[in-house]
């Protein structure tokens, strides 16, 4: 029927499983202590500012500054291509963020007519 609870000795056929679960519980507790030590070390003992884009990702979520400003972007970015051109030499620009170094992209209405920035 299974292993009885609150007894001093267990059935011999369940002893291996009991030992395995006991050792696993101690390993789980030790791994939690390592996790807590890492958090304490990273937050309080030796904190370091993370870079803006540590993985050189092309996705919009990694194009904001660290710490993240309340508005994320000064204006809504215009998506120009997909962000999956990693390690390509001449990868296309993912989005127009409205900065001076990029020319503005014409926005088309649903009817196909081009809209000017002042018309939006």
Topology:
Elements: H1 15-45, E1 78-79, E2 95-96, E3 107-108, E4 114-115
* Structural domains: how many: 2
The percent of residues in helical segments reads 25-40%
- The geometry reads as elongated
Quaternary organisation:
single chain
Decide which structural class fits the backbone: alpha+beta
Proportion in β-strands: 5-15%
If you compute it from the alpha carbons, what radius of gyration comes out, rounded to the nearest whole angstrom? 28 Å
In short:
By secondary structure, the protein is an alpha+beta fold. The protein has 1 helix and 4 strands.
Characterize the structure shown.
- The protein is of the alpha+beta class.
- The protein folds into two domains: 12-45; 50-106, no CATH class.
- The chain is 26% helix and 7% strand.
- It has one helix and four strands.
- It has one helix at 15-45; strands at 78-79, 95-96, 107-108, 114-115.
- Strands 1-2 form a two-stranded antiparallel sheet. Strands 3-4 form a two-stranded antiparallel ribbon.
- Strand 3 (107-108) and strand 4 (114-115) form a beta hairpin.
- The chain is elongated.
List keywords for this structure.
two-stranded antiparallel sheet, 1 helix, disordered C terminus, 4 strands, elongated, 120 residues, 26% helix, single chain, alpha+beta, 2 domains
